[in-house]
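Our preliminary data section would be incomplete without showing what the modeling component actually yields. Below, a chain of 295 amino acids is followed by its predicted structure, encoded as tokens that our downstream tools consume directly.
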Amino acid sequence: MRTDLAAGLMVKPESLQITGSFKARGAFNAVLSLVEREPDVAGVVTHSSGNHGQALACAARAAGLAATIVVPEGVTPAKIAGIRSFGGVVVTEGVTYDNREEIAEDIARSQGLRLIHPFDDWDVVHGAGTIGLEILEDVPAPGALVVPVGGGGQISGVALALSALSPETAVIGVEPDVADDAARSLHAGTMQALTSDPATLAEGVKSKSIGDRNFEVIVSNGLVRDIVTVSEAELEDALRVAWTRLKLAIEPTAALTLAAYLNGRVPPGTAEHPTVIILSGGNFDPGTVAALLSA
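Predicted structure:
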């Protein structure tokens, strides 16, 4: 395991966003764009493992819209509490990772709401791309930019921004090895999907497959250099390092990129061309994190 956390490494802590994750970027861009197109829209709905739901509820409240968030049963309670704190209506009964999108689509049709997909939406993708723009303001020539991958919205946005402004930078994604659908899609050149709900601590990347728009950016247009995987043990170790050495209160999903760095799956970086890792969020269950830190 690498221990050189200062040499050639920089971090982008999206855990410090208003809703605790990078998802605020895409949600606000999507909601503001929607209101501009449809001033009389009644409200919005989405499906989420928590972070996109919080972000959409926050953005909807700012725009004066109602927001309904479909969340699988068993999601971290802190994330559900966060959605409600921003005024979102939470639907969890009977919701699983398999049926959440279908339930959200049914609600959109029956209640006349607009569905804001958590990752397969160009407005969401473009909002996430602002992470890349901000990184380039501070680091003009990163050697690599490392991004967690679930549905692919974040890495798609970042890859689009980097392809335009810093095409020499390698955009690299990270997944749990038990949820490697994006890695397999990239390497096979065809859409790959998980067959069951993956048993991973990184609940933010449990999407069964990347979206069609995300596939277009990542695979069809070849804007992502590679997608690597890490084990659950490596993920747990990285979370401990983030909390105890970096002093950053991140959630397990956010530790994917740090795990890849610590275990040599991504380039180490240099002072001139550092490796930049995105720590995607900080919405976690205190009990789960406490147990990991004391293990």
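The first helix runs from residue 23 to 37. DSSP finds twelve helices and nine strands in the chain. Preliminary results of this kind motivate Aim 1 of the renewal.
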